[in-house]
Amino acid sequence: MARLSSRNALVTGSTSGIGLAIARALAAEGANVTINGFGDADAIERERAGIEKDFGVKCRYSGANMMVGAEITAMIYEAEEAFGTLDILVNNAGIQHVAPIDEFPDDKWEAITRINLIASFYAIKAALPGMKQRRWGRIINTSSAHALVASPFKSAYVAAKHGVTGLIKTVALEVAEHGITANAIAPGYVWTALVEKQIPDTMKARGLTEEQVKHDVLLAAQPTKEFVTVDEIAAVAVFLCSDAARQITGTTLPVDGGWTAQ
């Protein structure tokens, strides 16, 4: 029997990559899902319809901009109204930029901080009242190994992800007696478009070739010497939504091939 057949979920940044894998994994367990993100409209519709066809659940799409607090709040309320409840919130949307801090573009710093951290605040704030009323909820942030350690040239991303760690801890403590858990998953390097797109900037910043960036910078951090897969991250998210994980809260769980064990 599907573990989440009575639940309704929303996953931000879920039109591709890790977010889409999480949305599909939740749907595979029976949850109705709201997906969110940017991209080609036809491609997004194919993914949305595919979730419904593949798993026999309801799936809706929200184009809310994670830079705009009012749109995030409206997205949460609309998802709740559409499905009756919002039981699972996965804050997954994220962007990255690589540059020395004294050359870091101001607009990139603002955008990274807003999408990777501040958007989570607005979503959690809007979702919690309903979860408290029903005395059940799962809040999950897709964070990063950079929530626990730093790397050069990623000041905004590292700062935002460290902020996510503090936010999740605080939320977990505030709602600990309401049947709600709040956790973050901290992946190492996952082969997604987000990682692929930062390779040219890293090549420029460090004066390396593409292969050197992959093997000497990215996978050098991970003792397994393997990229984490989106399906592995999705499986952890499903577990955190299950009853088996109800006493796991306030954690940032590394899925990083041993990176942060060093």
TrEMBL record:
EC main group: oxidoreductase
InterPro entries recorded: 3-OHbutyrate_DH, NAD(P)-bd_dom_sf, Sc_DH/Rdtase_CS, SDR, SDR_fam
Coiled coil: none
Enzyme Commission number(s) of this protein: 1.1.1.30
Any one GO molecular function term: 3-hydroxybutyrate dehydrogenase activity
Keywords on record: Oxidoreductase
Family: Belongs to the short-chain dehydrogenases/reductases (SDR) family.
Protein name: 3-hydroxybutyrate dehydrogenase
The organism of origin for this protein: Labrys neptuniae
Source species taxonomy: Bacteria, Pseudomonadati, Pseudomonadota, Alphaproteobacteria, Hyphomicrobiales
